[in-house]
Amino acid sequence: MARKLIEQGHSLTVVCGSNKLSDPGISGPVRRGWRSGTVDGICVRQVAMPYSNYLSVPRRAWVFLRVALKAVAFALRGDYDLFFATSTPLTAAIPGICAKLFRRKQFVFEVRDLWPEVPRQMGAIRNPIAFWALLGLEWLAYRCVDACVVLSPGIEVGIRRRSRPDLPISMIPNVSDLELFRPEREDSECFLDTDDDDFVCVFAGAHGIANGLDDVLAAAKLLHQDGIHDVKFIFVGDDKRKPELIRRANEAGLDNCIFLDPVPREELARKLASADVGLMILANVEGFQYGTSPNKFFDYISAGLPVIANYPGWLAAQVAERKSGLAIPPEEPGSFVDAVLELKSKPILVREMGKRARELARSEFSLEQLSNRFADFLEGVAAKNGVV
Q1: Under 8 Å CB-to-CB from 213, ≥6 apart: which residues?
Q2: Which of 211, 298, 331, 373 is 20 to 30 A away from residue 379, measured at CA?
Q3: Rounded Cα gap, residues 111 and 267, in angstroms
Q4: Which of 47, 56, 54, 61 is nearest to 18 (CA)?
């Protein structure tokens, strides 16, 4: 998205946090809490404040707040016309609010999850004072913004309920990178500890409470008990629950579950090209059904993988309507096993579903299409407010 704005003649500064699993591509020294550099013509300013999903909830909240406050310093002094903030967390809106209130800059807010409602449904926010404080921040953000970008239909509905009726909103979900993730790559790599005859089901993403990976372990256990050993479940990623999931799989003797460290996207693309099915798994939380846009889904369909989705909602509907995979009910390991075995027994169907998945990625979610929509929307907001 940033490259598209550069391509269309805009200058851009990205302010980001720090995470041991991601590399923004800069390596300069830290000065006054910042590391700065240029990547593909984009000025990058990284807050030198390490973050990890292994942190406790209070420590994560503290990092979120400190990063937001560092970004406020940029919002109050930086040279720019339009301030774009992307959540989660909701604290990302704080510097945008400051840009609007104190410098009268245009403020566009990208909402990736409906905070604080979804964390409350998950039980992550139990303190009523914290919940009401976040509700207040949400209310202020939606009254300061000039426009919103949302990643799913449910998020748009939620914002419409909370904001002014004339607020410009554009739905721009996560994208399918058709060049990077593609089927039948000549440099494809098999996943570790899998054989050519294995039916490989891959989950590539965070291993947290929100991801509902208990469903995968339960299905793996049923297959193991039935003596079916040529179905392998690959878990690629990291998060706070990963050690517990590994322990439970080892205790149950589930040699059909293989846990791998996170890998760069280029390597993941090579490995997805060798898989058979992509797993789009989430916890059974109502807010997820129409309020999420998981990156993994768009990577799977770009790679031409049929998708097994274990929660209802707008993406499961896409899978069903385009016949590009199977939608199954949540928390029903028997249905999960049935779906896996059905696909395993029908290789021709798997290939056909994979082709339809790739076409879905091309027609609805391509990077080129959505980055153009993104750039045009921001330019439209700026023009409407007399900036360009």
Answers
A1: 203, 207, 235, 241, 245, 281
A2: 298
A3: 29
A4: 47
Pick the closest to residue 115 from 99, 94, 101 (CA basis): 94
**Every domain of the chain and the residues it spans:** 2-175+367-384, 199-364
Distant-in-sequence, close-in-space partners of 129: CB < 8 Å, separation ≥ 6: none
Domains 2-175+367-384 and 199-364 share a fold: yes
* pLDDT, tens digit only, all 388 positions of the chain: 999 999 999 999 999 887 766 677 888 788 888 889 999 999 999 888 777 777 777 788 888 888 899 999 999 999 999 999 998 788 999 999 999 999 999 999 999 887 777 777 766 677 788 788 888 998 999 999 999 999 999 999 989 988 888 999 999 999 999 999 999 888 888 988 888 899 999 999 999 888 899 999 999 999 999 999 999 999 999 988 999 999 999 999 999 999 999 998 999 999 999 999 999 999 888 877 788 889 999 999 999 999 999 988 899 999 999 999 999 999 999 999 999 999 999 999 999 999 999 999 999 999 999 999 999 999 999 998 676 6
Report the CATH architecture of 199-364: 3-Layer(aba) Sandwich (3.40)
Contacts of 367 (CB under 8 A, 6+ apart): 175, 176, 177, 178, 179
- The b/e string for 126-164 (b: 16+ C-beta within 10 A; e otherwise) is eeeebeeebbebbeebbebbbbbbbbbbbbbebbeeebe
